[in-house]
Amino acid sequence: MKKTVLTFAILIIVVTSSIAEIINPYEKAMKAQLALLDSAQTIQEYQAVANSFERIAQKESNEWLPLYYAAYSYINIGFDKSLTLDQKDTYFNKAEELLKKAETLSANNSEITALRGYAVMAKLAADPASRGQSLSPVAMQLFGKAIQQNGKNPRALYLMAQMEYGMAQFFGSGTEKACSMAKKSVFLYENESIEGINPYWGAEMAKEMTTKCK
Which residues form a coiled coil (predicted)? Predict the structure, then answer.
């Protein structure tokens, strides 16, 4: 009798797991690509992941996260030092296009707004001498909006801290405000409850930034 009950229980677990995979192939595909995104280092690896996320986005036309992660992948490509300025801009522009699509699916989304700001900040970093004056306010506005949309979004706060720190260095002023924001972002990262395939990146970068603060 015990053996029969155990066999039945195992069967239930197997069937339930199989049904879960059939019911949610989208999340399964996303998790597989997120694992590759986490390990990506080269342009080719990021491009392959971006392509996969875009294919998922085409299939799951009501989901914003595939577009978000494809955009994030393109931003990472754009930071590659081997690229020319025009090449960098091509990737940053692609990211911005995808994020505009994502916003039509999820309005007032702090994560999307923060990543839009990150794309602008990346463009600025690619040519700070000629773009600082025009793009700094745009990036700051987007990060501020993202924080307003969700004050507990660690990515929005960390990215704003990065901008504040860069501006403080440029103008030769104190970095206390930037460092305070960076430390708060680390606290938020440590207390963030990651659900499923929602955004989670940036914790290590935020911690690294706080090492610059006294």
Answer: 88-115
135 phi/psi in degrees, rounded to 5: -95, -25
Q: How many CA atoms lie within 13 A of 163 on its CB side?
A: 26
Contact 65, 197 (CB under 8 A): yes
Q: What's the CA gap between 98 and 165, in Å, rounded?
A: 28
Domain ranges in the chain?
A: 1-107, 110-214
In tens, the pLDDT along 151-187 reads: 999 999 999 999 999 999 888 888 999 999 999 999 9
Nearest residue to 57 (alpha-carbon basis) of 46, 44, 70: 70
- Write down the pLDDT at residue 22: 53
**Rounded distance between C-alpha atoms, residue 135 and residue 91, angstroms:** 17
Q: Would you state the CATH architecture of domain 110-214?
A: Alpha Horseshoe (1.25)
Question: What's 60's DSSP letter?
Answer: S
